[in-house]
Specification:
Aldolase_TIM, about 40% helix, globular, 8 strands, alpha/beta, about 10% strand, TIM Barrel
Length: about 425
């Protein structure tokens, strides 16, 4: 086909891929082409972690193989009943586009997903062939992320992991009820079964690499998944518990959250407007608390309101601290690291600095100020050698004092 036809299809399929948030490029194996063989790199100036303002990675060529689909998921713009322009690439065209864009320094890797055309197995074969052409014919050593299809044969999904740096399977919705209602062609147990097989393959490959130096790699950057927020009635507590279970069961590298976005010709079962984007942000913050701050999903859920949703005006850690004020204040000179992680305003780096500094001297409030970003947020919840918050921690208006102030943004501000 002509180049104009290629660009027309690229415009359609790149736009159709924008709803998938799980395209970060971290955690893969180090590869480069410095020895004169192959093309591309995943280190140094290879995968640069460039993100758009909404948090999505922009360093990858992010496209669908096709937006034709035999499934009819209500929330998907590419569902079979949707009135949208359709397009399709061949595996060779995707490989050629990736190499062409890489040589022009437009991208550092490929994120490839697809609608289901003909059958799950046929589509998965086409996606694997894209990765095979890049790896074997072009010796491409850059980053490849493949969105695998849980309904496809296990052997095809396994082959995808042999070529890709990361693989992912979307659980789509937080609850089985929501999935059955909005995606009748998908099965929650089938999705979990595919994730479990991939998790087992990743663990087996890592074990083989420890024993045999030249054992094949399998998805060295692990697997991830994505949940749509706000398309069904699932609360933030439901979502947090679901994400925590996925991390525990399948050892996922990341769970991504994507706020539901209204689509053209939407089904009547969908909400008429998208949820506040800050809700997605609060879920990412809660995810961070579970992964890096030692919070359990049940503890994060305790910070929600009577409907099970996190507050939008303050972050989840502050919400939890305000609800359990009896835990505070904590003495920064004596409190264990695990409790200091629960102080609003103290991140992992700040806690590391405090623990290291208190080995050499008794910390005062001015010392904490030098070690943290926002002392105002920290002060009500800590004690130092020269500071006790006394009644500040129990003030009825403490939330209003610590909540970020709403500001009217200027359209043409510099």
């Amino acid at each position: 086909m002509s180049s104009s036809s290629i660009m027309d299809r690229l415009a359609i399929l790149a736009d159709a891929a924008k709803y998938d948030a799980s395209c970060a490029s971290s955690g893969t194996a180090r590869r480069n082409s410095l020895g004169g063989k192959g093309i591309g790199s995943t280190e140094g100036m290879g995968i640069c972690h460039a993100y758009a303002p909404d948090g999505r990675c922009i360093s990858l060529l992010k496209i669908l193989l096709t937006n034709h689909c035999i499934f009819d998921c209500h929330y998907c713009v590419n569902r079979k009943s949707s009135n949208t322009r359709r397009a399709r690439f061949t595996p060779q065209e995707v490989a050629d586009l990736t190499i062409s864009f890489y040589r022009r320094n437009y991208i550092e890797g490929l994120f490839l997903s697809s609608g289901i055309v003909k059958s799950s197995n046929h589509t998965m074969e086409q996606m694997v062939e894209c990765a095979r052409i890049l790896r074997e014919e072009h010796e491409f050593r850059g980053y490849i992320h493949l969105k695998t299809i849980p309904e496809a044969d296990a052997e095809l999904v396994h082959r995808a992991g042999l070529f890709a740096d990361r693989v992912s399977i979307n659980v789509e919705l937080p609850t089985d009820r929501g999935l059955a209602r909005l995606a009748p062609d998908k099965d929650a147990r089938q999705i979990e079964g595919a994730m479990n097989r991939t998790s087992t393959d990743i663990a087996a490959a890592r074990d083989s690499r420890r024993r045999f130096r030249h054992a094949p790699r399998f998805a060295p950057a692990g697997q991830s998944t994505q949940m749509i927020v706000g398309a069904d009635r699932a609360s933030d507590a439901d979502i947090v518990h679901r994400a925590s279970g996925l991390y525990t069961q399948f050892g996922l590298r990341r769970v991504y959250y994507s706020a539901f976005s209204p689509i053209p010709d939407a089904s009547a079962v969908l909400p008429l407007k998208r949820p506040p984007l800050v809700r997605e942000h609060r879920l990412y913050q809660s995810d961070w608390l579970i992964r890096f701050y030692g919070f359990r999903a049940a503890e994060v859920a305790e910070a929600t309101d009577d409907k099970g949703n996190l507050p939008l005006d303050i972050d989840p850690k502050l919400a939890w601290a305000l609800k359990f004020r009896e835990t505070f204040p904590l003495d920064v000179n004596r409190a264990p690291r695990e409790l200091l992680y629960r102080v609003p305003g103290l991140g992992v780096t700040a806690v590391d600095r405090i623990v290291a500094a208190r080995r050499h001297r008794t910390l005062r409030l001015e010392d904490v100020a030098r070690l943290t970003v926002s002392l105002a947020k920290v002060r009500p919840f800590i004690c130092t050698a020269d500071w006790r918050p006394t009644r500040l921690t129990d003030r009825a208006d403490l939330r209003s004092l610590l909540a970020p102030r709403a500001e009217q943004l200027e359209l043409f501000a510099a």
